[in-house]
Amino acid sequence: MNARATGMSGDAPRTRPDKGDYTTLGEESWAVHGGNRADNTTGAIRTPIVMSNSYRLPRDPTTLDDSDPDALVYTRESGVNQLGLQAKLAVMEHGEAAAVFGTGMAALHAAFFSLLNPGDHVIVSNVVYMRVWGLFDSLLPTKLGIEVDFVDITDLDAVRAAVRSNTRLIHTEAIANPDLRVADIAPLAHIAHAGGALLTVDSTFTPPPLLRPLDLGADLVIHSLTKYFNGHGDAMGGAVIGARSIIDEIKHGPMHHVGGAIAPFNAWLIMRGSITMPLRLRRHCENAAAIAAFLADDPRVAYVAYPGLPSDPGHTCAAAQFNGHYGGVVSFAIAGDHEDRLRFVNDLRLITSAVSLGHDETLIAYERYPEERAAVFAPPFRDHGLIRLAAGLEASDDLIADLHAALTTAYGPDH
Ligand SMILES: Cc1ncc(COP(=O)(O)O)c(C=O)c1O
């Protein structure tokens, strides 16, 4: 792979670049040009939104090649905007192929449904997005007879010890939602492959160029496109990216037979968002780093999790893996009681109390967990609840001023 494409900045090209040859292009150029096609009918240099839910059949429909999962026949299975987005994502993640869906959860479900059979065993990080946790905690075991062990993914010995003869999959988030623990992808891939299993990585918090799990040995990378790729808080989508043989199985299986297709308009919006994603991501990360430093220094804050802080348990791994940036999310705990924390969150003026991340505006969510989940979090989160802040694109000084003022409302002056 192009070494130049792994950094955030990209040097000047040494040779005259060609639009379609990604190996000669810098990071931002991949995001701009990947998957773009001029429209043959109008000559428009951007793919129009094609809302049609079906496509004209050939004169003899029996000649249709059923083995091609991308054939343009019916929009549950393939569509013009879906194809463009898939091509762009495959390029950006260094994968052979991509399958996109209507939500991140649809993408995750499709991957697991395709890869797993009754009786298979899965090792899952014990901190993952709550709906993914629910999928592995109840739906997959009870509906499909999948055996699941939740393991601290940062403890490689524990992961190794959990591998069984029927282990088919290890699944983790690169930076975990919500406690931001960092998974070390290369050794996890090694453990999975040594045990005859695959590694799937949900890289929603670490889109490229922060991380490319496939380059580190993961078999599939999965994204909620709803977040940084879309970037503007106005569309949902999900993607699975990896070897064409696995992606084709996912398309021929759950995508075609279960559904979960992305709407053409949403695929178009996310395609547009993807173009500026690397630029925006840099700003999200810079703002998150500034906010984490501010919070870590404030005596009213009991605990800050952010892989960019040198004191964070995931810092060394993150520094080695994420190309010098540490993500756009900061999780923290503030002392006081439940009412104090509600006062703090509700007194914020610029920062909006809402779930999700990767929006242009900064979002904050005060979360509490059921006992069985809370047990795996660091004690400050267990005691004080967890506040997850997803840094937006505003001026960091404005965000810090808002946080400082709301902390003062809730707790009084800091000194
Ligand atoms: C890490 C992670 N994966 C997957 C999802 C699910 O994505 P979606 O909301 O697009 O279904 C989320 C949602 O917050 C998430 O945080």
Automatic annotation (TrEMBL):
The keyword Ribosomal protein does not apply. InterPro entries: Cys/Met-Metab_PyrdxlP-dep_enz, Cys_met_metab_PP, PyrdxlP-dep_Trfase, PyrdxlP-dep_Trfase_major, PyrdxlP-dep_Trfase_small. Keywords: Aminotransferase, Pyridoxal phosphate, Transferase. Its cofactor is pyridoxal 5'-phosphate. Residues 1-41 are annotated as: Disordered. SUPFAM superfamilies: PLP-dependent transferases. One of its GO terms (molecular function) is transaminase activity. The keyword Ribonucleoprotein does not apply. It holds the Pfam family Cys_Met_Meta_PP. Belongs to the trans-sulfuration enzymes family. This is Aminotransferase class I/II-fold pyridoxal phosphate-dependent enzyme.
